[in-house]
Write a structure and sequence with these properties.
The chain has 104 residues and is mainly alpha-helical. It has 2 domains: 53 residues, Transcription factor, MADS-box (SRF-like), CATH 3.40.1810; 44 residues, no CATH class. 57% of the residues lie in helices and 10% in strands. Strands 1-2 form a two-stranded antiparallel ribbon. It starts with 13 loop residues before the first helix and ends in an 8-residue tail after the last helix. The model has no long low-confidence stretch (mean pLDDT 85).
């Protein structure tokens, strides 16, 4: 039997908030890793703590993934919405098969 639902609101107790942050951060990093391995997805995750400390995960270079994101979002303005671009990509994969990606 699982735990009950919790109300999503800011945790007032500093110690409890820090413990919860650490546990959830680790779970989030694990999920990002699993997504990249299981689905062969390019994943970059950036988290800043309440104190400003940086935590990150990437199966590729974070910088390269951000550059890819910037290029994709700049292409969106001229090519249509994200949904339209994804539909085009998926139709190409169906016709030609999945693309092989080279990771540096």
């Amino acid at each position: 039997m699982g735990r009950g639902r919790i109300e999503i609101k800011r945790i007032e107790n500093t110690t409890n908030r820090q413990v919860t942050f650490c546990k959830r951060r680790n779970g989030l990093l694990k999920k990002a890793y699993e997504l990249s391995v299981l689905c062969d997805a390019e994943v970059a995750l950036i988290v800043f703590s309440g104190r400003g400390r940086l935590y990150e995960y990437s199966n590729n270079s974070v910088k390269a993934t951000i550059e890819r994101y910037k290029k994709a979002t700049s292409d969106i303005s001229s090519a249509g919405t994200v949904a339209e671009i994804n539909a085009q990509h998926y139709s190409q994969e169906i016709m030609f098969g999945p693309a092989d990606y080279i990771y540096m």
